[in-house]
Amino acid sequence: MRPRKIRIIDAVPGWQRYLPEGRPNAAEIVVGLDMFEAMRLVDAEGLPQDVAARSMGISTPTLCRLLGEARRRIATALRDGWALRCDGGNVMVRPCGQPWAGGPQGHRCHGRSQDGPESAAVTGLDAALAVEHGHTQAP
User: Fold this and answer.
1) For the whole model, what pTM was predicted?
2) d(C-alpha 101, C-alpha 86), whole Å
3) Of 8, 75, 80, 83, whose CB count within 10 A is highest?
4) CA–CA separation, 133 vs 116, rounded Å?
5) Burial (CB count <10 Å: 0-12, 13-18, 19+), residue 77
6) DSSP letter for each residue of the chain
7) pLDDT tens across 52-102, in order?
8) What's phi and psi for 67, nearest 5 deg?
9) Would you say 4 and 87 are in contact if contact means Cβ atoms under 8 Å apart?
């Protein structure tokens, strides 16, 4: 089986679990950090899908699959009154000071990093990965 490519995200969201009002014990559905980032870039930031895909270091078809699955899961949670949990995925948080060359405003540092087993394996973008994904070193 082919290993999953690491998806680059700008930051881990400031929340991990989102609950429907009055339902503290609601069933939950998980939205991966990569799915959340895809929705954030396309739906909230208004980036074109090809630009968002480049920002995450993935192909446009992969971004489209992430968007579709994230939207399906969120719609299901809203329809059924389930909690949303934002967690998991093969992701790496873009290091602070590591701008994204293709972005209209460049990288915005959110002062957060991801802790966990996935981030332990990858501690930062090396020069080759940065060039491959269109990133540049900070001045």
Assistant:
1) 0.69
2) 27
3) 8
4) 23
5) buried
6) -PPPPPEEES---S-SEE--TT-TT--EEEE-HHHHHHHIIIIIS---HHHHHHHHTS-HHHHHHHHHHHHHHHHHHHHHT-EEEE--SSEEEPPTT--BTTSSS-----S----SHHHHH--S--HHHHHHTTB----
7) 999 999 999 999 999 999 999 999 999 999 999 999 988 999 887 555 545
8) -60, -45
9) no
Amino acid at 61: P
Chain position carrying tokens 């957060």 = 112
Residues counted in the chain: 139
Can you tell me the distance from the alpha carbon of 32 to that of 99, in angstroms, rounded to the nearest whole number?
23
Question: What tokens appear for 108 in the block?
Answer: 């915005």
Q: 23-54: b or e for each residue (b if 16 or more CB lie within 10 Å)?
A: eeebeeebbbbbbbbbbbbbeeeebeeebbbb
Report d(CA 86, CA 97) in Å as an integer. 25
Helix 60-80, helix 49-56: angle, nearest 10:
100
